[in-house]
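Q: Is it fine to ask for two folds in a single conversation?
A: Yes, each is treated on its own. Send the first.
Q: Here.
A: Result:
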Amino acid sequence: MTDAHEAGAPARCTGLARVTDLGPEELERSWGREPRHVPAAALPTPFDDLLTTRDVDDLLSRRGLRTPFLRVARDGHTLADADFTRGGGVGAGVTDQLDDTALLRLFAEGHTLVLQGLHRTHPPVLELAQDLAADLGHPVQVNAYVTPPSSRGFAAHYDVHDVFVLQTAGEKRWRLHAPVQPHPLRDQPWQDRRPAVEQAAAGEPRLEVTLRPGDVLYVPRGWLHSATALGGVSTHLTAGIHVWHRGHVAEAVLEAARRGLAAQESQRTSLRPGVDVADPEAIADDLAAVREALLQAVADVDASAVAARLAARQRAAQRPAPVDPVGTVEALADGLDDLAVAPRAHLQ
């Protein structure tokens, strides 16, 4: 059998062009606001180069993957890691490697397999994630959801990141409802609003669509969604877009202002002996002084200081293209005269 990754693969099309038919201006108008279904016919290339059934079985059975690179769920309930892991055997004594025999049983019983962090473990998906992050300017992670026939892995819920769903095999029926918490932050998970989520999901969906191989569904953060596999096994990739938002800017501004206050001697002096910091009246004068200084410190923060702090977070959130440690050192050992040097893709 010819591997789609090696031969017969479509011409490479990177980033946003693989997942949406919208141009930059159209995408900006709908970004974070409305879900969108894009049929395969509207996109330039299918997804059979990204993840096949053979790829899934290889990851589950032959790569020595450990938790948390896999979750197993059914009808909204996630299994404990011990239900599908075991020791690696002689020479690999870790206790949480994936147990393929347990996964065979669980999948046959109707459990969904969630391969997490494929942007770190599967090269074709790594390339897509990096290209997508470069186009969007937001960090990207990719998981795969492999669902047995006529099964549902998760109940209706919302995510705290935007999502592009790429259907790679089989069919899956999706139901989407409007948010109960628009634009939720990472500390505002759907479990905190479970009654509202369940009530909203019981109503008529705003969008109901069946995804087929090559289709894409864009789901903004906060939109309620659930999906059920139809007929055979259904596999899709979920590209999670961990969006930057003004809250991140606010955090950077406040951190820069805090450091500005720390540079002022008047803000570093000790409070008086016997002060009761639990008494609002006792700290009223100090609070007024801090407020005044803090407001001025916030006003003094410039854009370059904020950008520098966000840049550090950006570098930590998205890794550049892989480098070959052994091959690079081996090449350097032969001298620099004929050595070809290329920039490392996506290096900040």
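Q: Second one now.
A: Result:
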Amino acid sequence: MNPIRSNNSTILQVEELKKYFPVRRGLFQRISGWVKAVEDVSFQIEKGKTLGMVGESGCGKTTIARLILKLLDADEGRIIFNGQDLVPLSETEMKPLRQEIQIIFQDPYGSLNPRMTVGQSIAEGLKVAGVFPGQDQKNRLEQLLKMVGMSPVTMDRYPHEFSGGQRQRIGIVRTLSVEPALIICDEPVSALDVSIQAQIINLLKDLQDELDLSYLFISHDLNVVGYLCSDVAVMYRGHMMEYAPVDEIFDRPLHPYTQLLLSAAPNATADEKYMMILDEKEMPQSLTESAGCSFRQKCPLNEPRCRGTEHEFIKAGENHFVRCCKVAENGEAIL
């Protein structure tokens, strides 16, 4: 069941998305189990807004990004972009929409071809999309480079001649070149120095205000998410554990996993009431989950009922959703 409903301002609506990967073993590579990379995930992004997606490595954040981009095919669910479901579309049908959904990669150097100049790398996307031909293409590149604080003369230089922050600015230019409506930011600042991170985050914020862009911002850094995002989705082992406006997540976290993430974030003013500690004896991760809460093996508040049937993603306040049976009882934070 998907409790999150779209409205007229919604640009992306994801409903009950699932993606499993087979585990093959033996001489004949027979399937011995399934990794549930994404399990029953639902969320929405409004036009001109940013949804932050947080969680530890391997929780399914990047898999969701690849499903939205149709680099992977979803097993179940719907991905509705501007009123059109992307899941059943073929590659030919998807091609016109790729111009409207773009991505900024984590590694700014690895995402650029070292044998191509900056101008050639950016122009390649314009040629594929069939936009801004001839002189208009050069004018477009110069305009975008100036927009991100770089000189147009850099078009004739190669990626190795730039710093990490400059390469990420080039990656942003390449993303913006085809005039997208939705940009997926897959940890775009994690490979950069802290001082450069602030510059790129402020640049993304300014570009959003200027161009009315919508972002899906994937990150480990809760402080960055708190600054840039309007809503936050907390992921754990393929499940969305909590979804709420950013102020609700930071001021009134309901799920134990969200509270643990906040307690682990560097913050000089952290509230001691959320200071929980995980059991050092970590339980092994199974390939095929049994029924119950996926976080129960590590949860400091674990009890027998957490091992029951799969817990629903329920409403625990206005625009606040959580997957926890304890919160479902009274909608209050677990302290």
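Q: Anything structural to flag on that second result?
A: Two points. Residues 274-286 have pLDDT under 50 and may be disordered. The two ends are 28 Å apart (CA to CA).
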